[in-house]
């Protein structure tokens, strides 16, 4: 199945979201739209879960593109160039690329080979498409740890806890049978490239949270221990991951005014700085969760999770993933997503998982 078979993809997604924005009866694509929905129902697939799956990956990609625009910029530079970056962007980074390859790895039951495929695209060794655009294989500031680990024919353990783990593991929360399986799968997939427990544990916790969100299990932000399986608790109790999540629990997230005069002096940004910059996985998780709790809309979340001096694409991508899983497609302006250069790859990859 190719993207060509989906007429007006954004219209279909609105249909899937049961949005009141469109009237399917008046659509020239009514028959096709109904056929796709019937196909899903005939496979006994849960339309709400599929909606949340699309939302998880799409919202993560939007956050990624938001943050990628200002990644590596200091806050004074952001302020000078953009004031505050507030407009949706079109170019997603390696975070979204690797997330899509994670989905392919889950589908084909070979995560390591899927990541190798991603690595080959980065070295221009393989002409790989999941859809129409070559954006899936363009270098977008890929993480050195991922590149170095995947370049070797033998696994060489390292001590990295970079956010190259957590930014790619949302699909394990979407496609696992249990919360513990989501944690363990994300943890083990992260071991392919990273060796430090504070790179692995945040990835597992995040995938477990995605699992709860997509299954509409209420998430409480007062007890993160619940997302850690029993056999990992000893590691977790000794980790920086637990310490930073405990620090997060002492913070009362504040919704800042989105104005140049106030944002960069806001209590929210100071709270974010207390948690770090997001270059390592536990900081990415904490900053994303802070942003989720402070935001009052999807666009507001993208602004809060990206407009800082740290690893803004990863913090905004992870925050977007969780927001999408929690709120589904109804919470996102679907028409604004079409500008993403990886939009069609996202649609195709999720369809490939469900319908093949």
Automatic annotation (TrEMBL):
Mg(2+) binds at residues 93-95, 311, 313-314. Residues 1-19 form the signal peptide. GO terms for molecular function: metal ion binding; poly(ADP-ribose) glycohydrolase activity. Its EC number is 3.2.1.143. Its cofactor is Mg(2+). It comes from the Eukaryota. It catalyses: alpha-NAD(+) + H2O = ADP-D-ribose + nicotinamide + H(+). Keywords: Hydrolase, Magnesium, Metal-binding, Signal. Binds 2 magnesium ions per subunit. PANTHER family: ADP-RIBOSYLGLYCOHYDROLASE, ADP-RIBOSYLHYDROLASE ARH3. Belongs to the ADP-ribosylglycohydrolase family. This is ADP-ribosylhydrolase ARH3. It comes from Spironucleus salmonicida.
């Amino acid at each position: 199945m190719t993207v060509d078979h989906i007429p007006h993809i954004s219209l279909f997604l609105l249909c899937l979201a049961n949005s009141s924005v469109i009237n399917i009866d008046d659509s020239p694509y009514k028959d096709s739209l109904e056929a796709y929905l019937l196909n899903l129902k005939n496979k006994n697939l849960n339309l709400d879960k599929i909606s949340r799956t699309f939302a998880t990956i799409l919202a993560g990609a939007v956050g990624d593109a938001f943050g990628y625009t200002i990644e590596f910029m200091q806050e004074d530079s952001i302020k000078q160039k953009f004031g505050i970056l507030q407009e949706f962007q079109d170019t997603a980074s390696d975070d979204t690329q690797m997330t899509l390859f994670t989905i392919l790895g889950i589908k084909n039951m070979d995560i390591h080979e899927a990541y190798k495929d991603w690595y080959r695209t980065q070295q221009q060794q393989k002409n790989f498409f999941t859809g129409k655009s070559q954006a899936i294989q363009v270098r977008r500031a890929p993480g050195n740890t991922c590149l170095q680990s995947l370049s070797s024919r033998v696994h060489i353990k390292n001590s990295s806890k970079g956010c190259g783990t957590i930014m790619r593991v949302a699909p394990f929360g979407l496609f696992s049978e249990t919360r513990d399986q989501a944690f363990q799968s994300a943890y083990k997939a992260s071991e392919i490239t990273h060796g430090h427990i504070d790179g692995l544990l945040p990835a597992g916790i995040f995938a477990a949270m995605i699992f709860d969100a997509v299954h509409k299990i209420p998430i409480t932000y007062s007890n993160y221990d619940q997302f850690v399986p029993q056999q990992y608790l000893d590691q977790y109790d000794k980790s920086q991951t637990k310490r930073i999540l405990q620090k997060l629990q002492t913070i009362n997230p504040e919704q800042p005014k989105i104005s140049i005069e106030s944002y960069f002096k806001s209590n929210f940004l100071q709270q974010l700085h207390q948690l770090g910059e997001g270059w390592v996985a536990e900081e990415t998780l904490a900053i994303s969760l802070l942003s989720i709790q402070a935001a009052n809309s999807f666009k507001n979340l993208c602004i809060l999770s990206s407009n800082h001096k740290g690893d803004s694409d990863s913090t905004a991508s992870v925050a977007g993933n969780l927001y999408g899983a929690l709120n589904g497609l109804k919470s996102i302006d679907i028409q604004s997503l079409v500008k993403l250069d990886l939009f069609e790859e996202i649609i195709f990859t999720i369809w490939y998982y469900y319908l093949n």
